[in-house]
């Protein structure tokens, strides 16, 4: 069977390859700076080089001069919102971005927010044809020529209810023309308002041009494998309502049996195995196990270890506190391309009653760690530690550490943490 060239068939996550779609993690910092301006640019470059699907938000902020932003050109899909602010770079090359899903919204309302960018002249969004949830907010960009927000037909991109939440409080600079850009390839592609009756998306005005109901952002043909993006889930290049379930019904035995083709949902993608640092639940990948579940590590026949959530038999295991001196290996940071390898020496009182409130000192042994944590503000430390899973709280796996850190020098910090 033939497959659409428009949809990836798997997942890249970190160093793990499953076919060729590269999923990377987004950010949730708004206008906070985790470090210096130069290190902030390096962080963005490391996060998004080779990235096609952003699992989270795409936040492009605090960029000046003429840095190379070509690493943004491959991004096709953003799960959360796109936020662009305080940028003075003339051109932002988001040429391939087709769909913004809006699973998380900026200020609770917007999937695309372009605010207060003094030097941006061109925002290359020629491929953007669908915003699933949330509105569009464009304001305070005095040099912006393309797109002219008032000359884009947003009804074709944003749903009717979401359109009412949108605000474009500016026109292009007076010497600019319309469309996404100045060339013939920059004309807006309409995939909704010009469709035949009954089409959600289409590639032309005829009834035969209708996309499959599972398509988002447009299509190249009528099949569920011809979509430019999936409305719900991408299963190896085919758009589906759900990922293949863990069990299937056998009509011969009148029983359910394990499905050898089962997959987990990871964002809007179906994966055979959850990416590193994610826990497998029955049908999805998660960062933290839900209530009445606990984390277990399963060793595969090939020697690889996978983490999953399992329901507790009886009461969930209780935290027993930390030993006075414990070396804690934090996989979330140890395997990060940004922070590199690091070790954390944890100092905790032996009293189990204080098992969820403790102080630790960490020493960093990596160039990336040192440059990223050349501490100038508290937020840059808490930003990196906020997502540590709390394995010592009661009950296990339900909480996160929240840490307040004071750094004595660039590589020794004392943190007071509490589980919430």
TrEMBL record:
Top-level taxonomic group: Eukaryota
Keywords assigned: ATP-binding, Glycoprotein, Kinase, Membrane, Nucleotide-binding, Phosphoprotein, Receptor, Transferase, Transmembrane, Transmembrane helix, Tyrosine-protein kinase
Localization in the cell: Membrane
Pfam families in the cross-refs: Furin-like, Recep_L_domain
Keyword Transferase: yes
Catalytic activity entry: L-tyrosyl-[protein] + ATP = O-phospho-L-tyrosyl-[protein] + ADP + H(+)
E.C. no: 2.7.10.1
InterPro entries registered for this protein in UniProt: Furin-like_Cys-rich_dom, Furin_repeat, Growth_fac_rcpt_cys_sf, Rcpt_L-dom, Rcpt_L-dom_sf
Residue stretches making up the Furin-like cysteine-rich domain: 176-318
Bilayer topology annotation: Single-pass type I membrane protein
Membrane spanning stretches: 357-378, 398-419
Receptor L-domain domain residues: 50-157
CDD domains to which the protein is assigned, alphabetical: FU
GO BP term, example: cell surface receptor protein tyrosine kinase signaling pathway
SUPFAM superfamilies listed in its UniProt record: Growth factor receptor domain, L domain-like
Top-tier EC class: transferase
Gene Ontology cellular component annotations, sorted alphabetically: membrane
Gene Ontology MF terms in the entry: ATP binding; transmembrane receptor protein tyrosine kinase activity
Record's protein name: receptor protein-tyrosine kinase
């Amino acid at each position: 069977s033939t497959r659409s060239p428009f949809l990836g068939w798997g997942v890249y996550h970190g160093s793990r390859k499953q076919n060729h779609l590269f999923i990377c993690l987004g950010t949730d910092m708004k206008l906070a700076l985790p470090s210096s301006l130069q290190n902030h640019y390096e962080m963005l470059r490391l996060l998004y080089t080779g990235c096609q699907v952003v699992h989270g938000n795409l936040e492009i902020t605090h960029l000046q001069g003429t840095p190379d932003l070509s690493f943004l050109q491959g991004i096709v899909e953003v799960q959360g919102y796109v936020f662009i602010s305080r940028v003075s770079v003339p051109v932002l090359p988001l040429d391939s971005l087709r769909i913004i899903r809006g699973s998380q919204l900026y200020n609770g309302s917007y999937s695309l927010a372009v605010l207060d960018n003094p030097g941006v002249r061109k925002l290359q969004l020629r491929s953007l044809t669908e915003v699933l949830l949330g509105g569009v907010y464009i304001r305070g960009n005095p040099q912006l020529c393309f797109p002219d927000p008032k000359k884009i037909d947003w009804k074709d991109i944003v749903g009717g209810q979401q359109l009412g939440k949108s605000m474009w409080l500016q026109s292009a600079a007076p010497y600019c023309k319309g469309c996404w850009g100045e060339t013939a390839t920059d004309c807006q592609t309409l995939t909704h308002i010009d469709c035949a009756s009954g089409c959600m998306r289409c590639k032309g005005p005829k009834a035969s041009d209708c996309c499959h109901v599972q398509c988002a952002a447009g299509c190249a043909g009528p099949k569920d494998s011809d979509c430019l993006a999936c409305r719900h889930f991408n299963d190896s290049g085919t758009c589906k309502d759900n990922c293949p379930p863990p069990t299937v019904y056998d009509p011969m035995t009148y029983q359910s049996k394990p499905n050898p083709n089962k997959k987990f949902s990871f964002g809007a993608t179906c994966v055979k195995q959850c990416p590193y640092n994610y826990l497998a639940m029955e049908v999805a990948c998660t960062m933290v196990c839900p209530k009445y579940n606990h984390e277990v590590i399963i060793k595969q026949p090939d020697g690889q270890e996978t983490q999953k959530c399992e329901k507790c038999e009886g009461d969930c295991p209780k935290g027993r506190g930390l030993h006075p001196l414990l070396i804690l290996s934090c996989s979330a940071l140890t395997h990060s391309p940004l922070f590199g390898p690091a070790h954390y020496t944890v100092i905790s009182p032996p009293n189990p009653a204080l098992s969820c409130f403790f102080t630790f000192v960490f020493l960093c042994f990596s160039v990336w760690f040192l440059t990223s944590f050349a501490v100038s503000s508290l937020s840059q430390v808490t930003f990196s530690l906020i997502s540590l899973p709390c394995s010592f709280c009661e009950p296990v796996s339900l909480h996160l550490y929240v840490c307040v850190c004071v750094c004595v020098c660039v590589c020794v910090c004392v943190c007071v943490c509490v589980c919430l």
